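Aim 2, interim progress. The first record below pairs a target sequence with its structure tokens.
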Amino acid sequence: MMAQFSIQYRTNVSPMPSSPVEYICLENCKVSLDYLSDRLLLFANVKELHLTKNRLTVLPKSIKECRLLLKLVLDDCKELQEIQEIPPSLKILSALNCQSLTSSCKSKLLNQAGNTWLRLPRAKIPEWFHQPWLAGLPISFWFRKFPTIILCVSSPLTWAWDSRLPARVIINGNTFFIKHGLNIPRTSPPDTYHLLMENFNGKMDNALLVNKWNYAEVDFGFPFMYSGIHVLKDKSSMEDIQFTNPDIELY
């Protein structure tokens, strides 16, 4: 069973127990930067950290010392301006309704090529993404070897995603679902979502055509304004992916 420490709606927070706590929730506790900076150094084993509705302006750099941290929730930290560091282990970062988060901070997070699922308020799809798809149009591409890609989508509605409503990839008519483990329903539009996707389902190989181009579509399953895709060139060959039908000859 996961060791947990949870406090909500408190102004005076007593010292937290140290390791081996894996789940920490400090919601609306008005924790100070110094308090959090010092305490995070004690939690080498924390895997999930909730700091919702706190009045932090900067996420302390000591967060990078939480080397096992998988999920960080900063929703409704309306004075938060900067997230200077995130642990390399982080899989989910949610910062919905963080109204003061700077554009440079959001851009830096979106430009990181780590395997982190991001939920950011009012962020723009980075310019280095492939041409954006407009509302209602699925991301589509052809590939010979499934590439390592980053998906980014800007939605007018905050994504209340859970395991019952995953995004899906359709390959040659076969449907595969993206599993993410994120379940934080919210309602504060618009927001941007960012996901690195690799060969996410071992059964995908059965749907692939041998020595031929395979057709793929990404369906997010909710309304969006723009979406984009970026191929990680250090992990994939651009010769194995096309955004126009390679079987149609151009004259």
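The second target in this work package is listed in the same format:
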Amino acid sequence: MLVIPMVVLFSSNVAIHYGERVFSAICNHCGGYGGLGYKDEELLNLNMIKKSLQIYILTGMRDNYLQSCAKAKKIFENVACSVTMEIMNNRGHRYYVDKETDIWNFVSLHQIKDDQ
């Protein structure tokens, strides 16, 4: 299984579409489920998730997508995915290089042993 961090709505849709068949863990970095301006009917069907997936959601207190990230956490937990959500103080909506080690540590913990 691949382990890769991804960003924004794309990672949520990848989690829904492929689930654990391809990825053993994903990171949603300062993005959420649906983001801003997306309607639920425009997104993929959560019932497509075949197996639980490890998801790390990273957002900031000043991120415009904070509510969307909270929505993603709730939605994925409701379909038995394991979700870790970190909300950074005084951070907005951008890519944080200083969090890359945390992201890789998370996905490495969930790497399938045969893929190491």
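The beta strands are 2-7, 23-29, 54-60, 82-88. This observation will shape the mutagenesis plan for the next reporting period.
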